[in-house]
Every structure is written in C-alpha cells, then in structure tokens.
Amino acid sequence: MSTSHATIADDTRAMLRDSLARYLADHYDFDQRRRLLDAAATQAPLWRGLGSELGVLGATLPESVGGMGGDFLDAMAILETLGASLAAEPYLSTVVIAGGVLARVGGDRAQALLAAIAAGEAVVAFAHDEPHTRFDATDLHTTVASHGAGWVLEGHKAVVQCGPWATQFLVSARSADTASANLLLVDPNARGLVRRDFRTLDAGWASELRFDRVELPGDAMLGVGGEAQPLIERALDEAALAVCAEAAGVLQRLITDTADYLKQRRQFGAPLASFQVLQHRLADMHIALAQARALAWAAAAQIDAQPIQRAAAVSSAKVMTGRACRTVGQGAVQLHGGMGMTDELAVGHYFRRATQIELSFGSTDQHLRRVDRLSGAA
Question: What is the rounded distance in angstroms from the CA atom of residue 191 to the CA atom of residue 193?
Fold first, then answer.
C-alpha cells in the first residue's frame, strides 16, 4: 500500500511540474519576465493564473480551503520549477511561509486567507528581518502591545520580499511586556504603516516597512499571544529549504545555458565544448548541483522531525546549496566571459538570483556555524 501511495504521489508531482513548466514557458519566459516585472509595482505577475487556472497555489494547502492537501515535497517540486523561470518569490512568501503558518494556527481568519491564497486572490509577504539582525529568529525589536480590544504595533522591518504586491503582511514582533514572540496579520493600508518599495538584486520587488503605532484589531494576532517562536523557527527552516529547491531550478538553467553557449562558440576551428578543461569545469558545476539537490530533498524528508534534527538537516542543505550557487554561478559567468554579466543575456539574471539565494534566510557561513553548534548540542 505504501509503495502504491508513493507512486501516486510521484505521478502527481510530475504532472504538477510539467503543467507549471508549460505555463511558464508560454507566459513567463526571460523577455516576458523583464517586461512584466518592470510594470509590476503593485501586482504579482501571473499570480491569479497560477491559482485559478492551474491550481498550483493550492497544491500544498488543505483540502478544506480548496487545496489539494499536498506535502512539503510537492512545494519543493513547484519551487524548483518556478526557480527555472525566476518566478518563485510570491510562492515562497505566500504559500510556503504564510500558508504553513496559517494552516498550523487554524481559526476562521486563517481559513479564509488560505482559501484566498489558493484562488490566487491574496499575496502574503513575511515581514521578519530587521536592519540589525543577522539570522537570529529571537532577535526582534519590533514590538506589539495590547491596546483596548486590539493591539498596537511599532518597529521597522527590512527587505520584505514581495512587499509591493502584498494584500497582507505577516509580521513578527515581541511582546512589549514579556519579550515573547508573536505573529500578526497587518493590512498594507493600516494607518501608521509606511512602506518604501525598491528593486532587488535579481530585479524583483521588496519593501522596507515602518510601523508607527499601527493599531490592529484583536483577531490580527495569530494563535495565542506570545507563543509564536516555534512557528517562526519552523517557517524559517521551511523557507531556507524552499530557496534550496528554487536554487536547483536556477542553477540547472545556468548549466544548460552555459553548455549551449560552449557548443555554439568556436575557437581554433573547434567548439569550446570540445576543450577538455572546459568540460571539466562544466562537470564540476553538474556535481555541485547534484550534491546540493540531493541534500535538500533529503532534508525536506525530515521537515517534520524534532526541531534540533530538522534544523541540522536544513542548515546542512543550505550550506551545500550556498556552495553550489558559487560554483555554478561563477562558473557560468566566467565561461560566458564578459557577456555573462550583461542584461541582455539570461545568465546574468540567474547569476544574480543565485547570489541572492546564497544570502537568503542565512548565509552559508551562518548555517555552517549553526551546524557546528547543533552538532555540539547533540
């Protein structure tokens, strides 16, 4: 029975990959992406189509909200496919991070928002990082305090991915009196919220948020106040693995484009691909990707393990992925020569995304230190 179930799951995952890849090829190739993002200061490109037309956004969400009830491995498959088209950011913040938190918290408001996400009607941006933090999930300076029947929020969040597209912000904050962690849903139009939008290294969109005594209703708090730390830690571990999956798609595209370039370019009457030293360099890139992808999927299979075991697996995968981003990204640019960093070629854009992934949700060095710390604790 278990073997049959695994086969069905694998078939469904393959169909998700194929249908999504075809949709992106038709609607979001490299040139289309540049045009759409240049004009996308207020709305995520293709979001409604991914929800209402394909049903991809609900693939891992509960069936009770119109989803398919898939698991985290399904999200990994989707992210790898999105990564190949540089289209993963709204899915990462909305479905993986916010969707995971909302499904665990439950309640009427969470259910309604999950249904809107599945339909492509909501984008939720995770506002967690602050200007002073260095991948410390407990280091929160943004505060929330009770205020009548509701709450009042004060603080500053930096680099909120997909911020300009958000219909809701999922904000982490510490209690002003107890310093315990909380998660709150904040309307982008709330009075006292100041948002500054900017383009990111990979040409995406992000925001800086300032909360100046933002008053929130009582149901803005997710779950029981002051008990959100495990939710935040789980969300950050899932996000780190999510960008590992995205990186696999990004790096595969870099390798494919580089191999094609070496076949087309000729020197001394022969294609560059025939030179043994370049073949060895390309082989190193393939090996780096294969190792990173295998470790990321192995870590994803432990996402429901005990927190320490989960954290060690996630950080190990993030270290390997970070190293692969450097090996493949730098190799692709160097083998293309100066053309590799131009805006006209896709390789430069994929390289910049790989560089950003290496630093997202903790750098390679930070995760390496985490692995060392957790090994000592074990």
Answer: 6
Question: Looking at the DSSP assignment, which residues form a beta bridge with residue 145?
Answer: 152
Count CB atoms within 10 A of the CB of residue 138.
Answer: 12
Question: Among all chains, which residue has been given the structure tokens 């809701």?
Answer: 168
Neighbours of 368 (CB within 10 A): 17
DSSP track, 51-107: IIIT-GGGTTS-GGGT-----HHHHHHHHHHHHTTT--HHHIIIIIIIHHHHHHH-S
pLDDT averaged over 10-residue windows placed end to end, the chain, 378 residues? 48 88 90 79 83 91 92 95 92 97 93 96 96 76 94 96 96 92 96 95 91 96 89 96 98 96 86 88 97 97 95 97 97 86 84 94 94 81
N-terminal to C-terminal alpha carbon distance within the chain: 35
Q: What is the DSSP string of 273-308?
A: GG-HHHHHHHHHHHHHHHHHHHHHHHHHTTTTS-HH
3-state SS assignment for residue 347: helix
**Residue-range domains of the chain with CATH:** 2-122 (1.10.540.10), 127-220 (2.40.110.10), 229-377 (1.20.140.10)
Task: Look up residue 137 and give its DSSP letter.
Answer: T
In what helix (H) or strand (E) does residue 216 lie, and over which residues does it extend?
strand 205-216
